[in-house]
Design brief:
The chain contains 7 helices and 2 strands, in the order H-E-E-H-H-H-H-H-H. The protein is mostly helical and 176 residues long. The chain has one domain: Growth Hormone, Chain: A (Up-down Bundle), CATH 1.20.1250.
Length: 176
């Protein structure tokens, strides 16, 4: 029992530190959900491979994320749903099909995917708490993104989506 106050103090400090954003992280507000993440780290990895990835995109006339109104003017209540669906989209459809012969590019893609995995867990917890609800607007916008993606073969669509990652990152940063 003598060590109990010390344990309680250390435990409280540990919990408090876990709630604080780590260096380089920002708090993002996706509707009622708050997530700590480092978009700077993701953007840095993406910037290092952006030219390489975009050079692999043979179709310049179609955009997956830039379709008019896809991410623009999303109401606050729908931001969590769109963010969660897009992160799942990148995890399930994009990163799995973006392998190149360049090991440096593959490592950067893997690093970005790992960052997305962390965001996926955080938004998933918010969704389980019924804070991340999907309304009609977010469902419509996401269906349009999927329709744009499905117009292309899997590899081309994945590379194009990865090449447009900065559009998604810009949108997320407006939530900080």
């Amino acid at each position: 029992m003598k060590g109990y106050p010390l344990f309680l103090c250390l435990f409280s400090m540990s919990c408090w530190l876990n709630l604080m954003p780590t260096a380089g992280n920002k708090i993002f507000h996706f509707g009622p959900c708050r997530i700590s993440m480092s978009v700077t780290e993701i953007r840095s990895g993406f910037t290092a491979i952006k030219t390489n990835i975009q050079a692999r995109d043979p179709i310049r006339t179609l955009s997956i994320l830039s379709y008019p109104h896809s991410l623009h003017k999303v109401k606050s209540a729908n931001r969590c749903c769109i963010a969660r669906r897009l992160i799942n989209f990148y995890m399930d459809k994009v990163f799995k099909h973006c392998q190149t012969e360049d090991s440096y590019v593959n490592r950067k893609i893997s690093s970005i995917a790992n960052s997305f995995l962390s965001m996926k867990r955080n938004l998933g917890q918010c969704h389980k708490q019924n804070k991340c609800l999907c309304g009609q607007e977010s469902t419509k916008k996401f269906k349009q993104i999927l329709a744009n993606y499905e117009r292309l073969n899997v590899t081309s669509a994945a590379m194009k989506s990865l090449g447009e990652l900065d559009i998604f990152l810009d949108w997320m940063e407006k939530s900080a």
